[in-house]
From TrEMBL:
Keywords: Acyltransferase, Transferase, Tricarboxylic acid cycle. InterPro entries: Citrate_synth-like_lrg_a-sub, Citrate_synth-like_sm_a-sub, Citrate_synthase, Citrate_synthase_AS, Citrate_synthase_bac-typ, Citrate_synthase_sf, Citrate_synthase_typ-I. It comes from Sphaerotilus montanus. Belongs to the citrate synthase family. One of its GO terms (molecular function) is citrate synthase activity. NCBIfam families: cit_synth_I, PRK05614.1. Pathway: Carbohydrate metabolism; tricarboxylic acid cycle; isocitrate from oxaloacetate: step 1/2. This is Citrate synthase. One of its GO terms (cellular component) is cytoplasm. SUPFAM superfamilies: Citrate synthase. Gene3D superfamilies: 2.20.28.60, Citrate Synthase, domain 1, Cytochrome P450-Terp, domain 2.
């Protein structure tokens, strides 16, 4: 005791040097490899962003064709995976399924399991980025009892995912370009966020030398929690609860519960550990949210009206203003996903799909760092002083 700094929640501890993502929480800035998120969201697609995060810069035209080709080459998963999937209950949470499926990849792709081999890591990265949409869609199709749709590689990354989710073999499916773009933007905005809980989990897990698939599965598990990636699901559930209480008329009453510290109720989709001004991702997602609601004619849907009312009231409320609590990306991404027709329990799985590239880029950076060591936090021991074990009769 006394030798170590006590920093619960890592509020002031930097765990690594990183060149990937820069956040200025006070200014509300987010940059991937130096490029502002606002420009990436408008001028690039998700696979460009993946190239940027993985290899350090945006691809030129040839690199782009090559990278897209490599990813689309790996979109199918081993047929055996469906038998593993069949072991789950049909009503299993998609994140429970996804944690299992991602971990199981290491049992199928033995040529990409050596974390210390850069080639293995690269193939693992491509495989994970390519297969995540397939796995998420399979998990969904399984829970609704529909046949899996195989990937269609002439579609965009987001378009292919939409088709695997929503098409059936008995009808022609047409990708709506507004929704395709919205989904692609959700992926870009969730692609990386420096040393958040799941990314730190991936680094810590990978630091033991485990295989990349296992490390990413650990990230999926961590992301599931409602304080992290589970917030978009929790936010939609919260809106549903307010709806049941009586909808827009009850927002004030609900806000009083949030402000009562004893209630344990939080306004989900609000607040952030780092952004204390606004979340730049939320600003972009808000735009997309309105575009999608307009495209689908859902502006007057009661749940969306409720969300907009809640946003307005919270932004003007002294409690939220004083604590610098603003809507975060998950407030709007949940609304967009629901509008698109994605079932609420799948929201976090889509976040995991998008964050996978960030996790791998961070893992690669850590392994390539000559100073990297197994992560091993210390503790301040506050338990019992040494004592003798009493005999059973004396306990
Ligand atoms: N609703 C009501 N009060 C809140 C909220 C909220 N959503 N968030 C923070 N507060 C209060 C908190 O009670 C505290 O009040 P006081 O100063 O009186 O004790 C104050 O604001 C500061 O909060 P904190 O708990 O110290 O903040 P934190 O940095 O530890 O927590 C957070 C950040 C994101 C976990 C938290 O804001 C939260 O639980 N938000 C809701 C869940 C959510 O939307 N999470 C998604 C984050 S964005 C996506 C991602 O990165 O995964």
């Amino acid at each position: 005791t006394g030798k170590f700094t006590y920093d619960p929640g890592f509020l002031s501890t930097a765990s690594c040097n990183s060149t990937i993502t820069y956040i200025d929480g006070d200014k509300g800035e987010l940059l991937y490899r130096g490029y502002p998120i606002e420009q990436l969201a408008v001028n690039c697609d998700f696979l460009d962003t993946c190239h940027l995060l993985l290899y350090g810069d945006l691809p030129n035209a040839d690199q782009r064709t090559d990278f897209h080709g490599r990813v689309t080459n790996h979109t199918m998963v081993n047929e055996q995976m469906q038998f593993f999937l069949r072991g789950f209950r049909r009503d299993a949470h998609p994140m429970a399924i996804l944690t299992g499926l991602v971990g199981a990849l290491s049992a199928f792709y033995h040529d990409s399991t050596d974390i210390n081999n850069p080639q293995h890591r690269d193939i693992a990265a491509i495989r994970l980025i390519a297969k995540m949409p397939t796995l998420v869609a399979m998990a969904y199709k399984y829970t609704v009892g529909q046949p899996y749709m195989y990937p269609q590689n002439d579609l965009s990354y987001a378009g292919n995912f939409m088709r695997m989710m929503f098409a059936t073999p008995c009808e022609t499916y047409k990708v709506n370009p507004v929704i395709e773009r919205a989904l692609d933007r959700i992926f870009i905005l969730h692609a990386d966020h420096e040393q958040n809980a799941s990314t730190s989990t991936v680094r810590l897990c990978g630091s033991s030398g485990t295989n990349p698939f296992a490390a990413i599965a650990a990230g999926v598990a961590c992301l599931w929690g409602p304080s992290h990636g589970g917030a978009n699901e929790a936010c939609l559930n919260m809106l549903g609860d307010i709806q049941k209480m009586g909808g827009v008329a009850k927002v004030g009453e609900f806000m009083n519960q949030v402000k009562d510290k004893n209630s344990g109720v939080k306004l989900m989709g609000f607040g952030h550990r780092v952004y204390k001004n606004y979340d730049p991702r939320a600003k972009l997602m808000r735009e997309t949210c309105h575009e999608v609601l307009g495209e689908l004619g859902l502006q007057n849907d009661p749940l969306f009206k409720l969300a907009m009312e809640l946003e307005k009231i919270a932004l003007e409320d002294d409690y939220f203003v004083a604590r610098k609590l603003y809507p975060n990306v998950d407030f709007y991404s949940g609304i967009v996903q629901r509008a698109i027709g994605i079932p609420v329990p799948l929201f976090t799985a889509i976040f995991a799909l998008a964050r996978t590239v960030g996790w791998i880029a961070q893992l690669n950076e850590m392994i390539a760092d000559p100073e990297y060591k197994i992560g091993r936090p210390r503790q301040l021991f506050v338990g019992a002083a040494p004592r003798d074990v009493p005999p059973l009769s004396a306990r």
